[in-house]
Amino acid sequence: MKWNFDNERAIYSQIVEQIKLFIISGYYEKGSKLPSVRDLAEEAKVNPNTMQKALAELERQGLIYSNRTTGNFITDDENLIKNVKKEFADDKIREFISYMKNLGYDKQDTVKLLENYETGGNENE
User: Fold this and answer.
1) Same domain, 35 and 65
2) Does one domain contain both 21 and 65?
3) What sign has the CA pseudo-torsion 13, 44, 76, 59?
4) What is the CATH classification number for the domain harbouring 56?
5) Which of 41, 68, 77, 112 is such that its CA lies 20 to 30 A from the CA of 49?
């Protein structure tokens, strides 16, 4: 798993976002056990306290749960995972639409560009 952080936002919130992405993409399967906090922190090259804070937030959101003696696990709740996936998609679509508007494309032009991209066509067709 590759961890990507930028300097523009708090590492903690980026960890939360990336673990959510790992869950909704299936990298971490529902019901599976997460690596230990220390192992995750080492892998991400962050402080274990920062990782623990991020995991606590994910637990608050219901995406993971902890068992005091055996560690942290991904939720089995498929609906919750689907909802988080939709939220991610909605956010990316909003960002994309806003970006395209800033470039001067309206909805119809944007749809045409997407269709042409998918078919390998030329945007001027």
Assistant:
1) yes
2) yes
3) negative
4) 1.10.10.10
5) 77
Q: Is the dihedral of CA 56, 59, 60, 61 positive or negative?
A: positive
| Token duo for residue 15 | 């960890």
Q: What are phi and psi of 73, to 5 degrees?
A: -130, 150
* 1 Cβ neighbours under 8 A, 6+ residues apart: 22, 27, 43
Provide the residue range defining the domain that includes 105: 79-119
**Residue labelled with tokens 């991209």:** 117
Rounded to an integer, what distance in angstroms lies between the CA atom of residue 22 and that of residue 32?
12
Domain assignment present for 42: yes
Which DSSP string corresponds to 61-105? Answer: TTSEEEETTTEEEE---HHHHHHHHHHHHHHHHHHHHHHHHHTT-
Q: Are residues 58 and 114 in the same domain?
A: no
The number of distinct structural domains making up the chain is 2
Q: Which residue has the higher pLDDT, 88 or 125?
A: 88
Q: What is the pLDDT of residues 14-56, one digit of tens each?
A: 999 999 999 999 999 999 999 999 999 999 999 999 999 999 9
